[in-house]
Amino acid sequence: MSFPAITLQPPVSGKPLSKQQKAFNTLVGKIHRARNRLQQWHDAMQRAAQAQAAQIDPKMRNLNAMRKELLLALDVMQADPGYNKTDHKRLRAMIEVLAHACLSIQHDADIEAILNRQRAPAREERESGMGDLFGFDEFSQAEAQDADAPEVDGFDAEADDSAGFHRRHQIDVEKRPRDAQTPSLRIIYRKLASALHPDRESDPEERARKTALLQRANQSYKNGDLLALLGLQLEIAMVDAAHLSSLADAQIKDYVRALKAQLADLEDEITLIEQDLRINMPFAASAGKLDPRAIDTLIEQELDALEMVEGELKSVLSRKAEVRFMKSWLREQERSSQALAEESWEEALAALEDFLAQELSPRRRRR
């Protein structure tokens, strides 16, 4: 949708713009940029929703099926005499993680039954998450047979996070209702409503034209869109650019107040879209400053991460019968989980120390 370009000019050649006229023009420019960015976000969200439905969701369903297959295999391993007491603890922890991951996506009675049989020895073990569910580097058969072989490298936590365990939802952002309109908005709207009232037209075509214009005026007033209302006035020749530029500063000041509210609404709507993107599409949750032009790149990164996790799951499943390999893999998952927990704890302590240092430091006296 295109918007009218409205810029106030000095009514007298060579005379500088007043403070309110400059503020009006500045806000008009900001609103146009915000509208363009909002449109970019709507386009980006449409592409993201399409990619979610056509590519990401099918991959997630496939990954969930593979997680269930691994979970069932680990459950069988609990009866294998080749696994000792420590191995059983690791098996239980991994089964719980996989079960919660699967159940967070869809209900499964078989998985719930397996989960209910698990008795992790301590709450911290249950909640540790063993964050890297499937990660390992390729583990050769020769290494598996070598008792002194290097243990499996951990899987990158970011890749696991990007795979996600939660069902994603399409974004549906609704514009929030505005507060009471400014007097200028009401005055302009009433003038437009009077000029565009279709019942006053006998010609069917003219009545239809005015009906459409009045609908635009109604929507613009509802949205608090001063620029659209002014644009309609220009469109139907109710006023001209010279008339707008010659308005008194008191009138323009009221316009400025309406434009500030309009700009705030646009910025809030953009913020809401970004927040919903982070919540409903976890591949964007860990991204820094979001940009609608970068959505396609984020989608590609998500698909790459899912393919990597899928490949690692396939590798683990292909070697699930190798007791030595599975022991090493389970041990590495436990170590990765502990390392992540310690890192998070250290970060929390550092943040607390910074906070206390700021709170306990002597306050700077005001001069």
Automatic annotation (TrEMBL):
InterPro entries according to UniProt: J_dom_sf
Keywords: Coiled coil
Coiled coil: 31-80, 249-276
Name of the protein described by the UniProt record: DnaJ-class molecular chaperone
Organism in which the protein naturally occurs: Thiomonas arsenitoxydans (strain DSM 22701 / CIP 110005 / 3As)
Taxon lineage: Bacteria, Pseudomonadati, Pseudomonadota, Betaproteobacteria, Burkholderiales
